[in-house]
Amino acid sequence: MSSQRIYEVFARKSHEEPIMHVGSVNAPNDELAKVYAWTAYDEEKWLEMCVVRRSEIIPVLNPDDKPIWGN
């Protein structure tokens, strides 16, 4: 059995809207993450949807850390 990864799901309904975080899914690979995201968040008529592995997100500011730029 493959290990599960957490993927964050982002989507938008129109070109005028910014892309926004709509939730997350657990999946063993990128292809299944796309399927799970589409089926889990299909209640809206999305123009665009993408998934990002949570482990690949690079935080700029985190409540537990100091910002990367000086104060």
Describe this structure in words.
This protein is α+β, with helices and mostly antiparallel strands and 71 residues long. Helices cover 15% and strands 31% of the residues. A three-stranded antiparallel beta sheet has the order 2-1-3, with helices on one face. The protein has a single domain (5-56), classed as Ubiquitin-like (UB roll) (Roll), CATH 3.10.20.
Keywords:
71 residues; 1 helix; 31% strand; Ubiquitin-like (UB roll); alpha+beta; single chain; three-stranded antiparallel sheet
Chart the SSEs and their pairings.
Elements: E1 5-12, E2 20-27, H1 30-40, E3 48-53
Estimated structural class: alpha+beta
Which ranges are low-confidence, i.e. pLDDT below 50, for 5 or more consecutive residues?
Answer: none
The CATH topology name reads Ubiquitin-like (UB roll)
Question: What is the class in the CATH system?
Answer: Alpha Beta
> What's the number of domains?
1
Helix content: 10-25%
What characterizes the major β-sheet? 3 strands, antiparallel
Strand content: 25-35%
- Output the helix-strand order: EEHE
In one word, what is the shape? flat
Distance between the termini: 47 Å
What's the average pLDDT? 90
Provide a compact summary of the structure.
The chain has one helix at residues 30-40, and strands at 5-12, 20-27, 48-53.
